[in-house]
Design goal:
This protein is an alpha+beta fold and 97 residues long. The chain has helices at 2-6, 19-24, 54-70, 89-94; strands at 17-18, 37-41, 44-48, 74-79, 82-87. The protein is elongated and about 45 Å long.
Length: 97
């Protein structure tokens, strides 16, 4: 849960962000290993991003759109049927900006 909270720092000053776009760039470690791995691909190496289960995506969503909203760190809304959020001034202060 703490990792999901820290992922909001990426969009601290971005204004309104669609949650589904935000979720595409989230790098939360749900296990002991790193969420990004380096994998050999032929003669070169590639970074492999994690794929999250529906339960893991739901946890990130609940953390950002419910928990952080309830404590005043983010404002939430909808635009064209898509959920979006932005970090409040309080949230920016809390995360040290």
């Amino acid at each position: 849960m703490r990792e999901a909270e820290k992922s909001v720092q990426r969009v601290l000053l971005a204004g309104w962000v669609y949650f589904d776009d935000f979720l595409k760039g989230v790098l939360v470690s749900f296990a002991d290993e790193s969420p990004i791995t380096l994998k050999k691909s032929g003669r070169s190496w590639k970074y492999v991003l994690p794929e999250y289960s529906e339960d893991q995506r739901s946890l990130v969503k609940a953390t950002v759109l419910e928990w952080l909203f309830e404590i005043g760190v983010v404002s939430i809304g909808q635009h064209r049927g898509r959920e979006c959020f932005k970090v409040t001034v309080f949230g920016q202060t809390l995360f040290g900006r």
